[in-house]
């Protein structure tokens, strides 16, 4: 674990409209962080304009083209979002103002740029974390494949937060807000805490 200190890190989280491997993606967030920092929730803020800055990528994806391309959507997942975070769900579909909603193809192009050009300077490709080895990475790869684009995150740079949390006991109370940005931040605070425990 200690060698991770020298790497750049990004936490990835997607909210989807199905739990299958090829879901419609509702929102996508990615947040840069230092694994050995003592961060607080207020240290992380969404981009004040646009969909990304030097530290954060945060966007809702338009879903019509995803549905037309045959990506999976189910009523139970829709109900789940309405039950657990109706306000964020309404932002993502444009009923209320909040997270920017961007064309899906454009979003994938912009994330590719953000990850490979803006963040991965000096050949130091970041480690990307997600809360599950076969969830967010699989969903995002499916989206890139569906739109005929190259998935930018190499398998060598994909790490699973859930693997670490199952190995070390966290002292902090976790929450899952089903807002992709909020969940990224919560997962970052968790891995920072567990890194300190594992590095003792």
Summarize the structure.
With about 200 residues, this protein is an alpha/beta fold. The chain has helices spanning about 65-70, 75-90, 105-120, 135-145, 160-165, 180-200; strands at about 10-15, 25-35, 55-60, 100, 125-130, 160. It has a single domain (about 1-200), classed as Nucleotidyltransferase, domain 5 (2-Layer Sandwich), CATH 3.30.420.10.
- How many beta-strand segments? 6
For this structure, the quaternary state is single chain
Q: What coarse outline follows from CA principal-axis ratios?
A: globular
* CATH first level: Alpha Beta
> CATH superfamily, called what?
Ribonuclease H-like superfamily/Ribonuclease H
- Indicate the percent of residues in helices: 25-40%
Given helix and strand content, the structural type is alpha/beta
Which ranges are low-confidence, i.e. pLDDT below 50, for 5 or more consecutive residues? Answer: none
If strands are numbered along the chain, what order do they take across the biggest sheet? 4-3-2-1-5-6
Identify the CATH architecture. 2-Layer Sandwich
How would you characterize the overall build of this protein?
This protein has 200 residues and is an alpha/beta fold. It has one domain (2-198): Nucleotidyltransferase, domain 5, CATH 3.30.420. Helices cover 37% and strands 16% of the residues. The chain contains 6 helices and 6 strands, in the order βββααβαβαβαα. It has helices at residues 64-68, 75-92, 104-119, 136-146, 161-165, 180-198; strands at residues 9-16, 25-33, 56-61, 101-102, 127-130, 158-160. It has a 6-stranded mixed β-sheet with strand order 4-3-2-1-5-6, sandwiched between helices. α4 (136-146) links the parallel β5 and β6. The longest helix has 19 residues, at 180-198. The termini are close together.
